[in-house]
Structure formats: structure tokens, C-alpha cells
């Protein structure tokens, strides 16, 4: 079994965002499965989801305060 060399955090964030929007290339998907660590992608996904929810909450509060 080959040791995983991993991917950098910038690559993990880019892959996570691309996957969230559904525009990731097949070659990058295969690279992520071969070289990436699942924990890195899980952490990036949880942080990305939390930030998305927080942004939505801020936007809704701004709209409600302006009306």
C-alpha cells in the first residue's frame, strides 16, 4: 500500500468549494481520492457549512433590521 502524501489546505478548500457547487473536474476528484486525507475534507466541509450558515444568518438579520 502506497503512503498518502496528502494535499495542501488550499487544494482541500478549492476542492471542497468546487464539489459544493458541482463543478469539480474528474482529474481533481481522482487526485483527491488518491492523495487526500478524508479528515481534511471533512474538516473543510464542516467549516465551510458553518460559515455558509453564519453568512445566511447575518444576511437575514440585516434584512429584518432594515425593514
Characterization of the model:
The chain has 67 residues and is mainly α. The protein has one domain. It has three helices and no strands. The chain has helices spanning 9-21, 26-35, 38-66. Helix 1 (9-21) crosses helix 3 (38-66). The longest helix has 29 residues, at 38-66. The mean pLDDT is 89.
The biggest beta sheet reads: none
Strand residue percentage? under 5%
pLDDT < 50 stretches: none
State the separation between the terminal residues, measured CA to CA.
60 Å
Structural class: mainly alpha
| Overall strand count | 0
Total count of domains: 1
Q: What's the gist of this structure?
A:
The chain is mainly α. The chain contains 3 helices and no strands. It has one domain.
Question: Secondary structure elements and their pairing?
Answer:
Blueprint: H1 9-21, H2 26-35, H3 38-66
Give structural attributes.
3 helices, 67 residues, mainly alpha, single chain
Amino acid at each position: 500500500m502506497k503512503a498518502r502524501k496528502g494535499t495542501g489546505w488550499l487544494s482541500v478548500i478549492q476542492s471542497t468549494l468546487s464539489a459544493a457547487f458541482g463543478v469539480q473536474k474528474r482529474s481533481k476528484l481522482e487526485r483527491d481520492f488518491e492523495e487526500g486525507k478524508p479528515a481534511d475534507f471533512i474538516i473543510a466541509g464542516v467549516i465551510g457549512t458553518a460559515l455558509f450558515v453564519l453568512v445566511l444568518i447575518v444576511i437575514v438579520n440585516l434584512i429584518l433590521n432594515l425593514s
